[in-house]
Amino acid sequence: MTLAEIAELLGASLQGDANRQITGLATLGSANEQSIAFFVNPRYLTDLKKTRAGAVLISAENVSHAPCDALVCQNPYHAFAELTAHFVSVPTVANGIHPSAFVASSAVLGSGVVVAANASIGDNVVIGDNTIIHSGVVVEANTSLGSDCRIYSNVSIYHGVKIGDRVTLHSGVVIGADGFGFAPSANGWKKIHQLGGVRVGNDVEVGANTTIDRGALDDTIIGNGVIIDNQVQIAHNVVIGDNTAIAGCTGIAGSTHIGSRCTIAGRVSIIGHLTIADGIHITAGTLVSKSLNTVDSYSSGTPLEKTIDWKKNAVRYSQLDKIARRLSALEKKIKD
Amino acid sequence: MTLAEIAELLGASLQGDANRQITGLATLGSANEQSIAFFVNPRYLTDLKKTRAGAVLISAENVSHAPCDALVCQNPYHAFAELTAHFVSVPTVANGIHPSAFVASSAVLGSGVVVAANASIGDNVVIGDNTIIHSGVVVEANTSLGSDCRIYSNVSIYHGVKIGDRVTLHSGVVIGADGFGFAPSANGWKKIHQLGGVRVGNDVEVGANTTIDRGALDDTIIGNGVIIDNQVQIAHNVVIGDNTAIAGCTGIAGSTHIGSRCTIAGRVSIIGHLTIADGIHITAGTLVSKSLNTVDSYSSGTPLEKTIDWKKNAVRYSQLDKIARRLSALEKKIKD
Amino acid sequence: MTLAEIAELLGASLQGDANRQITGLATLGSANEQSIAFFVNPRYLTDLKKTRAGAVLISAENVSHAPCDALVCQNPYHAFAELTAHFVSVPTVANGIHPSAFVASSAVLGSGVVVAANASIGDNVVIGDNTIIHSGVVVEANTSLGSDCRIYSNVSIYHGVKIGDRVTLHSGVVIGADGFGFAPSANGWKKIHQLGGVRVGNDVEVGANTTIDRGALDDTIIGNGVIIDNQVQIAHNVVIGDNTAIAGCTGIAGSTHIGSRCTIAGRVSIIGHLTIADGIHITAGTLVSKSLNTVDSYSSGTPLEKTIDWKKNAVRYSQLDKIARRLSALEKKIKD
User: Fold this and answer.
1) For position C89, what pLDDT does the model report?
2) What CATH class does B3-87 carry?
3) Out of A82, A100, A315, closest to residue C102 by CB
4) pLDDT of A199 above 90
5) Taking a C-beta distance cutoff of 8 angstroms, is the pair A81, C183 a contact?
6) Mutate which of C209, C246, C323 to disrupt the B interface (most B C-beta within 10 Å)?
7) Which pTM does this prediction carry?
8) Quick check: B312 contacting A, CB < 8 Å?
9) Domain boundaries, chain B
10) What's phi and psi for A43, nearest 5 deg?
11) Which chain C residues have a beta carbon less than 8 Å from that of A249?
12) If you average pLDDT over residues C85-111, what whole number do you get?
């Protein structure tokens, strides 16, 4: 593409050589004359000044720092995201149903559906138009997938799951396994069979090896536009509101309801039966042990220290209540 | 089923219409006239009073609050668990060995064994009667599975693993991968080949994407009746006693021995070479850094706070030892 | 093997019966007369004195405690690691390409490559000599694997990934899934397509269900000799230096660079865009929230306590800043 074509695509204002050929996107540091880079974060200003990029996506206020051609736009990061869609090339999978795949005769596949080698599609499964099922994927009976989905290799989807349109599931994702429901009894644990399903909305992306359990009675629900990173665990009957983002290694215990537009950082743990309001932010590594009703950012944990210092302070943590009582006693003594 | 039939099944006392038809189980909030719900937790009392359920499983002491027919039983939660087994319907997988599956000629399969599409069963594998192997499962050579097991799609079981009867493994489970054993050397890490196996008892359930490594020399051992949730990591030579329950995202490092009937909440981390006695409880998010010999509940971590408050307190954590020393100095000064 | 043969193999000095037949390795506690055990950790001295092992790998300074034949060596643990390679027996997988596997006609396979049942190898994939691909593995288009690799069952490798020689990937590993890149917009999250790949060096081992994402623009890079345990999450554009070891359940967020020879314990969380210098150690459960430039051991978290005590202390944590201010006020008052 030429810079002029890219400028038109993005609605950006071009400063420089309209005919420059661009063959790819790159970071400021690794770009060459045929690459386009982007500048947003001021801490990369040095990289910007030294960049060998052919052009840069940049805001009007920063354009004076660009040592190269510039595409001036209101939101360079958004423009960059837009542009990645034009340069991505996921290799195509051969059309149609591969001879080594198994598709039950009662399954109903839309037009343009691809089922790659050694995938398995169960009884009464319904798959919408243009959905691509990679190798080794298993879709169990009575499940439906919408159109324009991409289900990467070795994903496992249990029976009775409903997945919307334009959903991406990365490899190793498991949707619809039994929730962890057992009643104690004199003879050990008695299984509570999980009678609910899972409903996943439209425009959802789920990262590699993430698990989303089926509900005990009602369904587990993932709203529209939700984005979930790798190795996230979502237990039975969790409900996640539209456009919430959940970073890697986060776990959400059973029956917790999370609002819309929340941003949950990595390695967060949220215990069960809580309600988290819309728009809440939770920082990395936090244990959420109570419901959150007020829009704010929440945290827990202790700061990083050298182990030798940490040990001394950690010992004092176990004495904290005593320390606080001693302080109160001292205050009283002095007051008296 | 009629209410009378359900009452007989559960040994419950029926108050209401013996001929009422029940077609499913539901929560108090979502039930209709053909559903049966259950009431245990007092915080759902409002839901109970408003429920449209046809009937409710309830204890004698609470039955006066029920606005509908009631099945009075000693342990409504247990009765509910019992009843789920009668209403669950996991779709059947076609009998026998699917043509697209691979079963080694030396494998020995019991009567009623199902091997679904694109599963792979290695040399000398032994599988007991009525065990169901879903699509994409791989069982490597010399491994044995008992009878009445259900191995969900895309499970991976390595060679030389022994699995008991009535075991459920959910999708993505990996059993028997190498433990993380390496000796440091001048040329980097030298692999300690893992010569042990894994033994899993009877009546065990393992959640999606959980991993249980093979032992270095001796076997890794999972007792009878153990229940394990999703994304749990169990390292080499861990031993877990009968009927212990382990919730999601918990990790147990190598050679740690855990007793029977322990209840380990989600996102617990237990370091290696420890001994945890029978019946111990560990709360969510706890790091267990020493052996536990006394039956009790154990915890670590800090409470949830708004990030702005948390930052102030977290800074003080790094000063805790100094704070404690200053307090002691002050106490001494005043005493003097 | 005889003890004499083992002594020669390890360059150890033999004290005892040169003709003793050794059939396996075992721990001090479980060994019998035909087993060889090893002694390194002084806390197993009692086990050493009681062992029924035929022989023991031991250092010169400890050999007087051995109640059996001894192979005296400088580093018994290293010798033990060496010996495991001679006693390990992973069952062989049938040679060549299994008829139920799919290998694209454009794929180029070296000599001695094994592709087991129901594996799938995409277009233009290149696989080096003697690499073994277990059942259910999926390798997408344009990816290359070196020679002498072992890829265990149900691994998923995306397109455009480069993997070196002598690499072991355990079951459920996912390499090359999209990094978690999305730009906020008025209509929800806009995907940043991930245009980079993943490069994995030589002599790398990756544990079960670990995920390594592809880069956004540049590649995610795993150096030579890196060892990674189970359920580790490595986000896009992470760079890991040679011979670093990462234990189970650790997560590393995007664009963080980790040096060589670091040892990162289990359940560590490292936030994004940090730099961790060579040789740093991080203890289990630590949240790393800043770059680390000085070689040392680092930690965070609070010690394990009985829940009843922990609750009292945890409440005080939320008051820590106030406690510190009260102490300062008191110090000032007394000074005045």
Assistant:
1) 85
2) alpha beta
3) A100
4) yes
5) yes
6) C209
7) 0.97
8) no
9) 3-87, 102-298, 306-336
10) -70, -10
11) 233, 249, 251, 269
12) 94
